[in-house]
Amino acid sequence: MSPNSTYAHARFDVLGVLGSSTSHVWNGLTVYVKPHCHRTMSSLEHAADVPAHKDVNRDPGDYVALNKSLRACFVCRLVKSEAQFVESGCDNCKFLDLEGDRGRVADYTTPNFSGLISVMDPSSSWATKWLHLSKYVPGCYTLMVNEDVPDSLQDILEDRGIKIRTAH
Amino acid sequence: MGKDEVDEVEEDLEDEEDDSDFNGEDSEYEDVEEADEDKKEKKVQAKRGGRDKKRRVAADDDEEEEDVGSRRKKRSVFIDDIADVDDDDEEEEIDEDAEDLIDDRDVDLPDAAAAPSQANYRLLAGRDRDREEMKEDEIARYYEDRFKHYDEGGSQYDDQGVEAGTVSQQGLLPTINDPKLWMVKCRPGHEREACTQLLQKYYTLHAEGLPLMIKSAFTLDHLKGYLYVEAEKEAHVKDAIKGLRSMFYGKGVKLVPLAEMVDAITVNRKAKMTIARDNWVRVKGGLYKDDLAKVVEVDSSAQRVTIRLLPRLDLMAMANRDESERKKFPFGKQPSVRPPSKPFNVEEARQLALSVSRAPGPEGQSYLMLGSHRFINGYVERTVAIKFLMVLDGMPPLEEMSRFNAAGLDPEGQGNAGGGAGDLSSLMATLPADASQPKAKFNKGDKVVFLRGELQNLEAVVTDVREDGKIMVMPNIEGFTDSVDCDSDELRKLFLVGDRVRVMNGQHSGESGMLIHILSNDRCVVISDLSREEINVFLRDLTQHEESDTGVEILGPYQLHDLVQLDQTTAGVIIKIEKASAMVLSSESTLEKPDIRVCTLPDITRKVLGRNIITMDRNGNKVQINDLVTVVEGPSTVKGKSGTVEYVWRGALFIKGKQLSDASRGFLCVRAKACTVRGGTNTAADLARLAASGTPRSTPQSPAHAGGGARIGYAPQSPLARGLGGEVKPPPPRMVSSQPGSRDGGKGGHGRSPAGVLVNKVIRVVGGAYNGYRGRVKQESDTHVQVEFDAINKVSTVDKKMVRVEGAPAAANGPGGGFGRSNPGMPQPRSGFGGSASQQSGFGRHNSQDYGSSQLGSYGTRTPMHPSMTPMHHFGSGSSTPSHPSMTPMHAPYTPMHQANTPMDDNYMMLGGGGGRPGEGRSQDIGAGSYMPAPTPGQAYTPAAFTPAYTPSAYGGDAAPTPGILDQSGNTGAAYPGDIGHQANTPYIPGSTPRGGLLASDSGSGGLVGNTPGYRYTPAGMTPGTTAPTPGIVGASTPAFTPGGGMPQTPGADLMGGGQIGDAGIFEYNNWRDVLVSVLPTKELAVVCGPGGNRMSLMVHYVEQGDEDKWVARPGALESVEGAALQMVLPAKKDRVRVVLVGDGASSDSLGKDGLLISIDGADGIVKFEHTSELAIIDRKCLGKIVKVEERH
């Protein structure tokens, strides 16, 4: 991994959705995205991607298509699009080794969830505390996964002594 | 250390090194950043950004501190060394390792980066060495600390179990220090989009150095058009949503109250859809709305489900569609009439020339295709959105399921067009045997058997059902004291034939019954208590149910067997309650055809509370609740049947009897005129005689008549009486409750049920929170009234004790129990002269089961007498208190009639027969040769005067003490009170309505007689010598009358052990059953064993005391004895007793209750009631001693 890849990656996400320009009219609000903002990005380097299509040319408003591709990690409930999971795996649960493995993404993430929460500041938010998300990276999470953990994943979790909160 | 473990450690080290490399760059970068920062601070920058930077620096420091902690954690990879020392710890170590692995790889990446990996390793190794040197207890402490750390959330994954979760979750409840939630409007359907947009914006602005201050934003999928944003300040939220297309900035944001924050973030559990293969579902809409369907396949990613349904096809319409229609509606038109659901039948389709093709299906089967429909096994298969379905909680109703499954039994959809309910066993065969079958719900106390495991076939009892679904059971093993927890599928419910059970699930839910047959496959047959029908249910849906009851019993405020009003003219008895409706046997029923209506809550106006309504049977005998009647008319199915009167409603009787168990569930509605009451004193012959005598005998039922009478009766009274009336004490508060309440006197006359006597009255509250308020009574119960206040816009429930009918004198509550006793002489003179201002017609109405007419009662109330009445009377008057009759002075005049058994008195019984009656009664009376003075209206007003006189005669005398009585204490009754009364009355008589006068003259000497009743009766009623109770004397004769209790007894009362039964009137025979009495002239002991020859008497069985407190019946010594001659034997300690008289401590509520006399305190006894185990202090004279009689061998 190259020294700057993490940032480049993160920045790409941001810019990718926005259309990768230095400035972008975002629903009427002009957002200036500086080309080199490494310093300020540092605190977010462990933020998960915003659920989005990877296709930069796609209309960001085409949410219906996005919504269909959204998946949630069984373990940490992180929500990303399927493509994002394949590309960068789960930002919290590295041990799932989702990166580049479509099959594992299909197994260990689910489209069957309800509620969505964007976590910006996990450390000071009450909602994350309540949902037990405060130890995870910023990103989009679901409030509730509606499917039982698959047996194969259950085994992995048991090996690691991880218990998943099913509901509160 | 096993090889694997070594590998793992090595791997881990590698990982760590990787990470370190990676993060090493990171830290370099951080250095750069710090350097940058210095420069940056010189630059002009947005203050906010700067502040943020500082904060971040501080945060970084924190992180570094934390790093120490996590580094310490890292050592865990070497803990295995320790594990060698102590094998017991091994397991924990592994766990720990697992935790650490996660930590290492995920969260702590940056931390690891902070130190060069070599140094890190050395550090770790060094610490490990330290640890080796630790003492054992130190190690223990070390682990304790470590795990404490985890408990505090040191791990990224909260490893809290379910139980711990609920507890710790409590600690996470929002506080005022937490950020707040704000509700933001967004475009409906774009909630998720808005949510991700906010995150995107946050990232973007963060990258720019102007981060948003919001903490999080979330949406619940079911809450359309709203988004929650968490932030410290409203401005932060506004900043965040500004400029976003999917959110409405202009609509503002709304703060979510602290208390609602948890609700806001909680996903409705019902919204959670768990749908799986073989689930039963219902279709939510469309042609198949509410139809049962079975899930065949679930595609959770597409949120679509394939289901099988019984098709609803209109094949005819499909066949007849012509070309134009086909073009217009290529997929067919929704039929206007919903076709019945039935299995698809290929032959039927082919006959209609519809082309059916085959297509490959699952599991080697093939689909039949008809147009776009695809069929398999007679079902239609469809793929629909999950949202289109509703998942059933448990099993569908058996019938529906059997219908559904029956179709499937028919291969290829041939025949079986009816889809009839296949028989149960074949149905069961089709049931999936797997886990998709709903699990049985266990309840505490259920008997169960273990199906598997070590305890297989052992019986056990469920002791608890935990929230997580585990079931605690206590195996039936000697010496086994601990409960075992197990899963519900390890258990089967255990029932034996004959068990009383309740159905918990399905369409028979709520019914109880007896298990009569257990079939295979978890099925059984239960005889329902309610319907007496056999029902087929699953064993798993049953639970033990000890009490026998009638199943579902409550519908809103109504209970099974309540008498309820349906409309103005109709009432009915609830004979069955189903889930949302009740079957009501209405008063419109005829003998030929019972009118049973299905009523929902809105159909029922109110509950009819009347208990004391009296009507007349065919022979003119009074009939009231609890009387035994025989139907003498009607078709052979009912003729000759008998039953107990449960309710009386406007001349209709609701009878309940075992013989009557037909469609109307043991109830029968019959006109009173079609019945004869058992033990009635009148015979048909009497009736005939009466008819022949030409006395006009009005129909008691006619309210108009009664009302008119009432008016006449009252008219003269009020003004005059008031004018004359000196100070009159208002009736004691309790009277109110029992009052007909008629200020205008019309009420009773109109046949209103006595329970509603206060309804619509204007009252004033004399205590409590609403003291002084005036209002109108909306509803009335036994103890409370619901009052709509005039001054405040409020309807409130007020204790009847605190209610006074408006217009009554203000001297509120009269001396509680003690008028008669307290100043025997006083009230009388006053009342004698004074018209009573009291509105309250306390006495009469009601209670007068005997005398019946509420009108009479009303009269009574007007009389000055009232004050002298003891409250008890009224109180007791409630229902069948024996003592009643004696209380109302009014009655007194009639009493003789009763004794004489003239048909007359029955006239008075009719509800609403009141006012007009006296006149008629009188005339009849005379006609019948009764020595009873006819009650002229005049009398009615002046009961006060008479009362004392009568009392003794009639039922032992009333409490009203006339001065005269005092003088004449030795005598029974007295003429003089009559005199006084007479004088008092005389003026009124003329004043009364012409009719009254007419009536009086009608009866010839009626008026005269009426005024001087005292003379006559007294002797008549009383058994000479035995007439112990001369109430006047001491102000109160028998305990029965003198609620004050502990009243001194009249001279001659020494005879009496307990209360005088005669006083009580023998109406409620049940109360007297098995009571030990002494028969007065001889004082022989006897036990009451049945109703006597007439209403005033009881059947007794003479007994002797045998050994050991046994009572032996003397052979053949059965006799009907006048109540007046019966005297209760005072119970002794430890006797079984029953409250048979109303008196000190004994309210009408407790009347008839059995108990044990556990102690005696002077005149009082302390009774422990059998059923309630309540203790009560009751005058012993009110208690009858109950004995068990054994036949002599």
TrEMBL record, chain A:
Its main location: nucleus. It comes from the Eukaryota. Belongs to the SPT4 family. One of its GO terms (molecular function) is RNA polymerase II complex binding. This is Spt4/RpoE2 zinc finger domain-containing protein. InterPro entries: RPABC4/Spt4, Spt4, Spt4/RpoE2_Znf, Spt4_sf. It is found in: Nucleus. GO terms for cellular component: DSIF complex. It holds the Pfam family Spt4. Keywords: Metal-binding, Nucleus, Transcription, Zinc, Zinc-finger. May regulate transcription elongation by RNA polymerase II. May enhance transcriptional pausing at sites proximal to the promoter, which may in turn facilitate the assembly of an elongation competent RNA polymerase II complex. Residues 70-146 form the Spt4/RpoE2 zinc finger domain. GO terms for biological process: regulation of DNA-templated transcription; transcription elongation-coupled chromatin remodeling.
TrEMBL record, chain B:
Residues 1-36, 81-103 have a biased composition (Acidic residues). Residues 876-890 have a biased composition (Low complexity). Keywords: Activator, Nucleus, Phosphoprotein, Repeat, Repressor, Transcription, Transcription regulation. GO terms for cellular component: DSIF complex. Residues 849-861 have a biased composition (Polar residues). Residues 1-103, 325-344, 691-756, 809-890 are annotated as: Disordered. Its main location: nucleus. One of its GO terms (biological process) is transcription elongation by RNA polymerase II. One of its GO terms (molecular function) is mRNA binding. Residues 178-268 form the NusG-like N-terminal domain. It is found in: Nucleus. CDD domains: KOW_Spt5_1, KOW_Spt5_3, KOW_Spt5_4, NGN_Euk. Residues 45-56 have a biased composition (Basic residues). Residues 274-301, 441-468, 494-521, 622-651, 756-783 form the KOW domain. The keyword Transmembrane helix does not apply. Belongs to the SPT5 family. This is Transcription elongation factor SPT5. It comes from Chlamydomonas eustigma. The lineage of its organism: Eukaryota, Viridiplantae, Chlorophyta, core chlorophytes, Chlorophyceae.
